[in-house]
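Standup, Tuesday
Yesterday: got the pipeline producing structure tokens again.
Today: sanity-check two examples.
Blockers: none.

Example 1:
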Amino acid sequence: MIKTLIFFAVLLGIAFGGSWLADRPGQIIIQWPWLDTGFEVSLLFGALMVIAAMGVAIALWVFVRSIWKSPGAIGGFFSGRRRDKGYKALSTGMIAVGVGDLALAKKHAAKARKLIGDEPMTLMLEAQTAQMAGDATKARQSFEAMLDQDETRALGRRGLYIEAQRRGDADEAMEMAKAATDEGKKTPGWAGTALFDMQTASEDWQGALITLSQNHSNKHVSKEQFRRQRAVLLTAQAFALEGEDNADVRMRPLLLEACKLAPGLVPAATKAADILNELKEYRKASKLIEAAWREEPHPELAMSYAYIKTGDTAVDRLKRIRSLYALMPDHLESKIAMARACLDAREWAEARNLIEPLAQSHLTPRLCMLMAELEEGESHDFGLVRQWLARAVGAHRDPAWTADGQVSDTWQPTSPLTGKLDVFEWKVPVREIAHAFQPILESSELDSDRKSNDDDLLLLPSKDDAEDMVDITDGPKVEAEAAGVVADAEPDVEPASEPATEPAEKPEILEAAAAPSATNSQDETVSDASLTDVDSTDTVDAETIKVASESSEHGKDAVPEKEKTAEGIKSKPKKVEFPMPHAPDDPGPKGDPVPPTPEKRFRLF
């Protein structure tokens, strides 16, 4: 809008100027020294001639300038066209890298290099193509070439850092990360994070503290993350001083600052409380543990709080734990800590009121041990003590210090697998969470099942035992039963056949009786087994199974011809009772399918 107003204002000024010149007639006399006469023109015509002369001069200047610069313009046209082709090849190559087309990426990377030379994106395309092809040497050369240009130096360091990580060269990776963070400009996020992780993995706590401060100033970590990670680093730095001269004095300020930054950091609170306890600063130690207990109740905190003053009696410790219990009365750890103090003070009734509801809701080995101690101390019932100790074996696991699937007895600042900082958590291990809802085998149930099944159990002998039975015992019945056991034990082994001229005593195989026939009016069950002979073998052959199936189809009274020997039909064997009607994992024999009853329909005709 303002430009439009300015345009109309200029146009209006030109109009008023022209009218002013037209209203004031005048003459312009032009006299040249070499001419006798001069030129006389009006003022308006003279102004127009001046303007026309200026236009002609400008046109001539443009014409001459275009002729002068025509070679450069022609060269620029071709170079621009070449550059456009190069950038098009570069774009196509980057897309080919994205989709994983190695051949197309190599083709356009070479074309882009030929057309536009050492452009930053050309080097990037060559490096990515080399990485995709697995050519680490070519990729390294491309990233090193990026270090020569200011625009691509950061990209080259990033690429060399990644290549060093792939080769497992920790020194070069550390060098590239340090080089990226030592510049005066803002540190890139990857460099600060990588340097911090490598310093913590190598337990360089002081260097990690400096890097963490730089990351916080560059806003790569939030304020909460900075406070938590600094507290963990200070705690790790304090733990590293253990065993040195005057360690408690040097550890005290580090642990106090860590507790101030992260009150819920259990290792820092417990260690600081122990140091303050040795320095007889009981009140300050109690406040540290109470602040940590409000954030995260933990058994180590309860233990440190109970033994703040050395030499106290069990009753004094119970009084102290009552104040800690009042802070978080509904928490599991508060109830367990209170129960532990009651057991030490021999307050059996209060301990039972606390432990029994917990044992009924979710049983763990720690609760089982507390119940065993309670039964031993209150009633001296060692039978119940053994029962609770047995239940502790199959109970769900208690929480423990866990990091990356690894369980540790003590807290550690970094992971033993990855070296990451502050990954240890107080929780139930992952492998136990998957089985958290499985039923626990009670010892009482195990005893009852054992008593009920002891009379029904039958020990099946092995092959060697069966042979001993055949040698020791006499009578065809015992030999048949032993041979049947051997056949069942090794059904897939085919023994070598004996010569037909040598008569051998044929073993007997125990077969299941067939079901009663459908034509029978009475409900009869066949519990006796029939014996069949096997021709000079210890296992059941196909012919014997066929005969057994035929006997089951004809009923229990049918005797196949295979069973008849020269001495007549052998006597029935003794009934063998098995402990179960079917295998433990077998749902049991399926009955005959009942035919569906046809629906009744009403017919009109």
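Example 2:
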Amino acid sequence: MGLATIDIAVLGVYAVFIFFLAQWVSREKAGHEKNAKDYFLAGRSLPWWAIGASLIAANISAEQIIGMAGSGYKVGLAIACYEWMAALTLILVGKFFLPIFLENQIYTMPQFLEQRYGSSVRLTLAVFWLGVYVFVNLASILWLGSIAVNAVAGVDQMTALVVLGLFSCAYSLFGGLKAVALTDIVQVTLLVLGGLIIGYLALNQISGGQGVLAGFHQLTLAVPEKFQLILTRDNPNYKDLPGISVLVGGLWVMNVSYWGFNQYIIQRALAAKSVREAQKGVVFAAFLKLLMPVIIVLPGLAALLLVPNLATPDQAYPEVMKMLPAGLKGLVFAALVAAIVASLASKINSVATIFTLDLYAHVKKEASQHHLVAVGRIVSVVAVIIGIVVAKPLLGNFDQAFQYIQEFTGFFTPGICVIFLLGMFWPRANAAGALTAAIGSAVLSLALKVWLPELPFIDRVGVTFLACLAAAVVVSLVAPAQQVSQIKVKLKGIDYSTSTSFNLAALVVLVIVSALYITWW
């Protein structure tokens, strides 16, 4: 079932509005030409609301909306642990990580690694991140986004894939991060509004028009097994979400790596006016993360009653969208497209940032600011083209793309976590220990995958993290100590204090997450 004329009109208004808004908010004052800091870090001028909204817009895309709704359909409410535990992680990032990064005026995560460990670690991780961002993140968002567009609008999937990629690149190409971040408040508003609409209508339909609360109550009674946050060993989905490990195990490693050390996420906070502004931004994002399961997982749960017996779980969200009336379908569809293009634009900008500042600028040290910005724009276009080409070959055969993405990144995140945590909080850590963690993470993860295939991947991440941490500590102690003069980042005297409002917000987030787990344990 395609879109009605009014739906197409709503989508068209959104596309034109967001494109021109991006150009307007990223314009420069007369006589000022964009330099690298303007293009890649928005001139370090982002306010808290733009940071918080942009963090969510970068995070929530087709891989979350389509993939997590699909996992909600298959696994149940337990998949929401990724969102609710992320809210707690964001508080930790704001409290302990951002003061270090902003005090040291960090542009990119590889830059921090070079200043802390040396050029070999920077080069290794820069190349790794470029590969993951293009071949996993960009490709997955394009593929899952095209599935949604095809299912709801009837557009040929490959056509949808190409259009999504090119539009995302086009609206962010001129303005860089500023264009992306300052339009993300619109994107997130549309995402939240669209998600609430589809959730309301789905629950109201389940209750036969008796309201949302009645629909939710009926849903919990119809499929009680889908409302367990902590899965038991006899649950068929235990391997995906292994019980208590989502609270105290490898999921913490995944979240800390993603929210604390992931360039396309942390780049928004690095562009803040100040540490306090960045901290307010991550708190805002934490509250939005608490809301995300209502917007994303709930439609997948509702699909269990509204459209049972789907061929694949990832069809859940598009199928529920089909039930919306004309006009509202266009609005919700625009919200889905907004999430896709916002996340794509974020990743495109981060690919350009890492390639330009961490690789190209080190080879062409004499390059002008204008030249670096031009290179960033060229890289953006190339990254999108590659993502379009490889999307179907890489992801076309997976029925639960969200779980696939989590498992793939889980091969490397334990080592990344070890490298950064030791680099920030243990002065004795050196390059030899860091490289041991990086290589050991991939090798040990693969070995456990082959030799212990029954081990849940979240547990594998936790085991690998502990092993890599021990190995990095031992190697750092055995290898020659890094000279103090070689450590070019400030690690002592960092002000970790936070405002009263930050502390109160953190407490509220903790209480809400605790209440949710107590209710649906």
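Quick observation on example 2: Residues 328-363 form the longest helix (36 residues). The chain has a mean pLDDT of 82.
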